[in-house]
Amino acid sequence: MFDIIVKGGTLPDGRVLDIGIEGTRISAIEKNLTGPAQEVIEAQGDLVSPPFVDPHFHMDATLSYGTPRLNKSGTLLEGISLWGELLEEATVEEMVDRGLAYCDWAVSMGLLAIRSHVDTTADHLRTVEAMLEVREQVKGYLDLQLVAFPQDGFFRAPNGRENLLRALDMGLDVVGGIPHFERTMEDGRRSVQELCRIAADRGLLVDMHCDESDDPMSRHVESLAAETAALGLQGRVVGSHLTSMHSMDNYYVSKLLPLMAEAELQAISNPLINITLQGRHDSFPKRRGLTRVREMQAQGIDVGWGQDCVRDPWYALGTADMLDVAFMGMHVAQMTSPEEMARCFTMVTETNAKIMHLENYGLEVGKQASLVVLDAADPIDALRLRPARLAVISKGKLVSTQPRADATINLPGRPTTKNRRHPISQS
Ligand code: FE2
Predict the structure, then answer these.
(1) Which of 182, 212, 227, 350 is catalytic?
(2) Is 53-355 in CATH node 3.20.20.140?
(3) Which of 48, 142, 158, 310 has a CA 20 to 30 Å removed from the CA of 350?
(4) Report field, pTM of the whole predicted structure over 0.90
(5) Which of the four CATH numbers 2.60.120.10, 2.60.40.10, 2.30.40.10, 3.30.428.10 does domain 2-50+362-411 have?
């Protein structure tokens, strides 16, 4: 007896199969699954995917757009300063409310795991208290991983070091950093060293905002790779953003990429935010501000797409839809071959799950019963349409449903049609 059967879904690899769920696990994936079930979801050939995963977000700041005022320059630095003001005013309750509201959006989009950076700058650490509360409240349906993030600098902020350690003691999961925001290159290098050491000593993962700059000489990623290898942290360290790589000298990058691959460093690019924030000092030609995604992947480096911001001091828009993120990334990184477009979908599912070290993720027997049914034929079609999430199942429970977005078209001389936009439905 199954709790749920999802019938006739097209998996990302093109196989059309039924998925049987018992409790919180996938217990069968096969053709023509028989047997009683409490609930049957008819996928009718629609894409069935493992859930979306966002490995880079700021939940403490989300949905705060316009408070205390708007970011006039549109720059990263004005955003940081605005957030500093908000940080002094925001209460725990308010941050919990915003976080939970965002998690509701996320679930409706099939986004069921999020890594969020939590600002540990302020001595009161209300951000940490609030995000731990959100993590606890959503744990039944959404995996929230929290990074201790010294937004104003590990050395540069008055109690940057102490507060980060306190936040880890309170229960945050991952060690963050921001070497390019320290006062000097040397301070940045030392922060990378010390933060990696803290992670090694505590057995934690590392995910640093690294070289989020247009300065081609911002080269902290080199230190991050070197420390990773030196401390035996291979596969446990992420460089987020890495935008300065877009402007680095090609010869230097030819040395850097193998160094990153050797350290099994992973990378996260945040295309919606970096196409918006970077290049603000340029006239023309104007740089795109995205790191070297394809080039890293060609070296075997895992690269994920992250969302970073939704309606906060850095970004006015955002939808909690990882397909929007992948769609933008695909354009800006020019990943337009069929193979590359399909890879963009994999980046916001499997690759991001690997980066977050999620256990039991994926559409396989024995894995956690979390999946999303999309009104699309295949991963590329999903990127093109960014369609309705018809059903979202999290840990064995149907947590969100949405109708198909069909238009009814009435035109002179044409039969009335339903605009089903993907090829399978049109046939
Ligand atoms: Fe970020």
Answers:
(1) 212
(2) yes
(3) 310
(4) yes
(5) 2.30.40.10
